[in-house]
Design the sequence.
């Protein structure tokens, strides 16, 4: 009976992932990461009550480490928190307006206001905790 436990755990994990995907679809969220660009930034912030923007660059190693974490969190928080990515090389106005001098930088917006900022590549659980604290969501 003990040999079935890993299979049971995998099935439970798959069920939970599928349920999150279905809930996101029902709530209208795709669980995807949106692109944030200079000329639409204000509009995007207004459209999304809770928004996390990952400011990154193609050449940045730590940014590549954070990317899959952001995608996972976008699925985990689908329908509650929107996650976006902003390429700093293609969108210098946003980086300048928030005085971003190091990447990756995560900007947390609640109802249009910057409420938190994280600089550097943090593990998923640390970023998740910041999301929950910033937006009061779990």
Sequence:
């Amino acid at each position: 009976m003990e040999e079935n436990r890993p299979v049971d755990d995998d099935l439970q994990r798959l069920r939970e992932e599928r349920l999150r995907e279905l809930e996101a679809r029902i709530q209208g969220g795709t669980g995807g990461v949106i692109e944030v660009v200079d000329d639409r930034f204000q509009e995007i912030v207004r459209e999304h009550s809770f928004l996390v923007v990952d400011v990154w660059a193609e050449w940045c190693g730590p940014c590549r480490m954070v990317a899959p974490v952001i995608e996972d969190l976008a699925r985990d928080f689908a329908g509650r928190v929107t996650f976006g990515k902003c390429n700093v090389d293609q969108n210098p106005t946003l980086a300048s307006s928030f005085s971003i001098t190091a990447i990756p930088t995560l900007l947390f917006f609640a109802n249009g206001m910057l409420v938190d900022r994280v600089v550097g590549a943090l593990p998923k659980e640390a970023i998740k905790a910041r999301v929950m604290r910033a937006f009061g969501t779990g």
Notes: DSSP finds five helices and five strands in the chain. The chain has two domains: 1-29, 31-135. Residues 1-29 form one domain. Confidence is low (pLDDT under 50) at residues 24-30.
